[in-house]
Amino acid sequence: MAQGEVDTKKCGSALISGLATDLKPRYHFAALEKTYYERLPYRNHIVLQETTQHATRFIALASVGNPEKKKYLYAFSIVPMKLMDAAELVKQPPDVTENPYRKSGKEASMGKPIPAPEEESACQFFFDLNEKQGRKRSSTGRDSKSSPHPKQPRKPPQPPGPCWFCLASPEVEKHLVVNIGTHCYLALAKGGLSDDHVLILPIGHYQSVVELSAEVVEEVEKYKVTLRRFFKSRGKRCVLFERNYKSHHLQLQVIPVPLSRCTTDDIKDAFVTQAEQQQIELLEIPEHSDIKQIAQPGAAYFYVELDTGEKLFHRIKKNFPLQFGREVLASEAILNIPDKSDWRQCQVSKEEEEMLAHRFRKDFEPFDFTLDD
Ligand SMILES: [Zn+2]
Q1: CA–CA separation, 40 vs 108, rounded Å?
Q2: CA of 184 to the centre of ligand 1 (A)
Q3: Cα-flanking dihedrals φ and ψ of residue 133, to 5°?
Q4: pLDDT over 90 for what percent of the chain?
């Protein structure tokens, strides 16, 4: 949903905000704005200060049969609270955010009224996942500026339309998300080449690495280093690639290749040979060099990054085979799973995806730098 669609300065109700704060519903449905929006779940407790509580999910639905065909029906099954296992009930979803209604612990406990809707702060629950995070965090006694690891970015760019990869977007397949940092997150690839094929994605809407700000690049690099260590511990090396062509949100593909299958040079040769066969000119870029120095913002390109940090770069003019990176990796020379070169052939059920994501989260935990404090 585009940010301009609902004027968050003019909507929202202080009374309902107060009610939601006190009642802590597991689901909060709203329909007044006649549009569909699903916010990331939020906490109902202050971490390390209060007992863990269940999270709340806020869902706004459009009018029934609206001409724009916006979602107006929401199907889900809910187990009544009293029938749930206490631990299961308070389990925090991986994408949980701070409570958008909580202005400051002090004010709340003094019963100070929540500001009227025309004030900016009462409208946060619609889109403002990030802007006030720092300030809210300070209410828990931790100043965002002095905190070395604020968990949310200040204000990630918003997409012009629906996006499958913006973390705050309702289109995101949240069950595939396996780790969330400050500026980036990790998700399992849908129909991945292997069960541990992941994507490094910026939380905000950036089209390519060329557009990333320095702090986001820094975290991308941190994820790369961490994933290399993680996969190495499992006897694999990882190959990364990015295609900035016919895509809107940066997806850095990370594909682990068992060490026993081939060497880094074999991988490099496979890319060079198969590129030649398709008249794709691959340029060798030395380790530690920046794509920004080679590609102009907006220019289409493809590159593959080997586990040595070395990159093979191609400037796309037109008609680049969209599946190229995937096809080379699936080929006999590397993973030897040619029937998996088309991701649509690799799709599994949502249950299986959930199981794989759960397993990855658990395996990755010892390497998770976002947990360091
Ligand atoms: Zn996006």
Answers
A1: 22
A2: 12
A3: -55, -45
A4: 49
Give the DSSP per-residue string, 298-334: T--EEEEE-TTS-EEEEE--S---TTHHHHHHHSTTT
Ligand 1 centroid from CA 126, angstroms: 17
Hey, what CATH class is 174-367 in? alpha beta
Please state, in angstroms and rounded to a whole number, the distance separating the CA atoms of residues 117 and 114. Answer: 9
Backbone angles phi, psi at 332, to 5 degrees: -55, -35
**Polymer length in residues for the chain:** 373
* CA-closest candidate to residue 314, choices 241, 248, 368, 372: 241
Separation between Cα atoms, residue 323 and residue 245, nearest integer Å: 11
**Token pair listed for 245:** 């062509």
C-beta neighbour count of 60 within 10 angstroms: 25
Query: Tens digits of per-residue pLDDT, 316-373?
Result: 998 999 999 999 999 999 999 999 998 888 889 999 999 999 999 999 999 999 987 6
163 CA to middle of ligand 1, Å?
A: 5
Asked whether residue 152 carries a pLDDT value surpassing 80, the answer given is no
Contact partners, residue 169, CB within 8 Å, separation at least 6: 1, 159, 162, 163
* Distance in Å, CA 93 to ligand 1 centroid: 21
CA distances in angstroms from 312 to 14, 164, 300, listed in the order given: 55, 27, 14
- The alpha carbon of 21 and the centre of ligand 1 are apart by a number of angstroms equal to 30
Q: Ligand 1: distance of its center to the CA of 160 in Å?
A: 8
- How many whole angstroms from its chain centre is CA 76? 23
Domain spans of the chain, in order of start: 8-109, 174-367
160-164's contacts with Cβ under 8 Å and 24+ in sequence apart are 160/2, 161/2, 162/1, 163/205, 163/248, 163/249, 164/249
Say how far apart CA 118 and CA 13 lie, in whole Å: 9
| Of the candidate ranges 21-30, 48-57, 91-100, 134-143, the one whose mean pLDDT is the lowest | 134-143
Predicted TM-score of the model (pTM): 0.61
Paired residues of 258 in beta bridges: 236
Q: Which pLDDT score is estimated for 203? A: 96
**Structural Rg of the chain based on CA atoms:** 22
- 43 or 224, which is more confident: 224
